[in-house]
Amino acid sequence: MVFEAVHYTYASGVEALRDVNIEFRDGEIVALMGENGSGKTTLLKHMNGLLKPTKGRVLVDGVDTAKTSVAQVSMKVGLVFQNAEDMFFESSVYDEMAFALKNFGFTEEKIRRRIEWALKFFELEEYENTSPFLLSGGEKKRLAMAIIMAWSPPVICLDEPTIGQDSLQKEKMMHMIKMLNSQGRTVVLASHDVEFIAELKPRVVLLSAGEVLADGPCEEVLTDMRLLERASLTPPQVVALLKRLEDLGVDYRVLDVEGAVEKILKVIRK
Predict the structure, then answer these.
(1) What is the CATH classification number for the domain harbouring 61?
(2) Three-state SS at 160
(3) Using alpha carbons only, what angle is made at residue 147 by residues 129 and 128, rounded to the nearest 5 degrees?
(4) Is the distance from CB of 10 to CB of 45 less than 8 angstroms?
(5) What span, in angstroms and rounded, lies between the C-alpha atoms of 149 and 151?
(6) CB-side exposure of 13: number of CA atoms within 13 Å?
(7) For an engineered disulfide with 198, which of 35, 46, 169, 236 has Cβ 3.0 to 4.6 Å away?
(8) pLDDT tens digits, residue range 120-129?
(9) Per-residue model confidence as pLDDT tens digits over 17-60
């Protein structure tokens, strides 16, 4: 998937994306990061064709999203909204999951098989006949992912997947993202949760005011204090702690506790 000089301006006149040039490679995990209003959600909605560029173009498998339907792009790129309820309108979990599959032309047998698999994968089997609106926050988020995974697109986009999730749910989300990626899928998530991203260690695209400030390994982007300040992001706790020890000769450019201990011991042993 490729963004070529993409600009997007909302009807209100707000320019949400400015000259965005990004290539998302198959089989990688990419985190879009930046302050609220930086353009993360707008960029995600361009990936499955919900929004079309004002200028420039987005190519999915070489096809210009402006020249094809959202349904066709969605077969390849699934988007899980930040507010999972925005995806729900059916009376039961099963019907919710079946709706898109029916529109994509799957047979009843395949629909049943795929729904059973997705419900089991996301530990939602017991809620098959339950209204999606009665699920807990974490269950709604998992159902939203299950809806997308039922038709198994090669690219999964997640908008703020950790919002409202406790530490256990975040751990499960981390496991799910890694599992999806291990199956060869590309996972793109928009997030301002620096601790979650620091642990996940994906490629990071840093946005501010609709522009790309940086694009590179997590270890480089989330330890660059100047860039983080420009994007109005606080550094991960480990980085912030080591930064306070910089005058003692401690290298703060590390994201995990084990690495931090090693950096501190290296100075102590000198």
Answers:
(1) 3.40.50.300
(2) coil
(3) 15
(4) no
(5) 5
(6) 0
(7) 236
(8) 888 899 999 9
(9) 999 999 999 999 999 999 988 999 999 999 999 999 999 999 99
